[in-house]
Amino acid sequence: MKTEKIYEYVCKVISVPQDRFFAALNYSVRELVSKYGAFIVTGRDAVTDAVRTDEGVRVRDEFITPLTDNILYLLTGDSNYKTDFTAHAQYAYHTVWRKNNRGKRIRKENW
After folding, report:
1. Which of 35, 36, 80, 105 sits 20 to 30 Å CA-CA off 97?
2. pTM summary value
């Protein structure tokens, strides 16, 4: 998804300059990566900062909603967005985990 669409959505809630938006966006991506790991959040091992609106956000589609919630929390200070961020991030993690482990079995140790 393009950064421009997230920026437009955030601007519908609160008017914010692009530099503050990108600071909140990059902080939110780093927060998700520190909690769930780079491979789960981005689909690759490296994390890069976004600097332009015509670039795509380098996270999986499942993490777009929690990313937007955390950006709105950082810009508005409304704690409801942080609560939504936590719930949506956990749901996104479980969705990605389920996709990655489909068809695999977890067995107990054979001693």
Report:
1. 80
2. 0.86
Give the DSSP letter string of 31-67: HHHHHH-HHHHHSSS-------TTSBP-S-GGGHHHH
* 7, two tokens: 């920026």
Question: Tokens at residue 6, please?
Answer: 């997230």
Q: Degrees (nearest 5) of the Cα angle 24, 47, 96?
A: 90
Question: Can you tell me which residue has the tokens 């777009």?
Answer: 64
Asked whether 32 and 59 are in contact (CB, 8 A), the reply is: yes
32-84 pLDDT, tens digit per residue, is: 999 999 899 988 877 878 888 888 788 999 999 999 999 999 999 999 999 99
Say which DSSP state 14 is in: S
Tokens standing for residue 74: 């950082």
- Among 71, 64, 60, 57, smallest CA distance to 88 is for 64
